[in-house]
Amino acid sequence: xxxxxxxxxxxxxxxxxxxxxxxxxxxxxxxxxxxxxxxxxxxxxxxxxxxxxxxxxxxxxxxxxxxxxxxxxxxxxxxxxxxxxxxxxxxxxxxxxxxxxxxxxxxxxxxxxxxxxxxxxxxxxxxxxxxxxxxxxxxxxxxxxxxxxxxxxxxxxxxxxxxxxxxxxx
Length: 170
Description:
- The chain has helices at 78-84, 154-160; strands spanning 2-14, 22-34, 42-50, 53-63, 68-76, 95-104, 107-113, 120-126, 142-145.
- With 170 residues, the protein is mainly beta.
């Protein structure tokens, strides 16, 4: 398994017109959270479909700060994927999303769109350092940074089936 430090910032954005972005990849993802691992690590498996070619990955993350985490990820077989699904968390629905990877001024952004919203999306950017300056795309309306707001984690969004802004009551 490859281990590396990941520095990532996450933003709530208005659902952009993707035809105006320099899309490099469009990926359909089904992400299933597994019971926590050793040291409280977050574990998940993903089914990733890009142009009809499906791959499976297993990931373990340990959160160090809201924007920094240690991540181990590896590709696994379909059989191993199905085996690991038996360890899925019962309190967390699978995350279904379409990810658009696009470039803007030398930065590679990831835009995650969810079936429950055609108005909001999550945009992420991996950084070299936590204080790196971000040059935001002109065609994307950034509403706010949500890097340290757990309500915008994939697990929380899947469980709620909506963005916090779209949840009524509670």
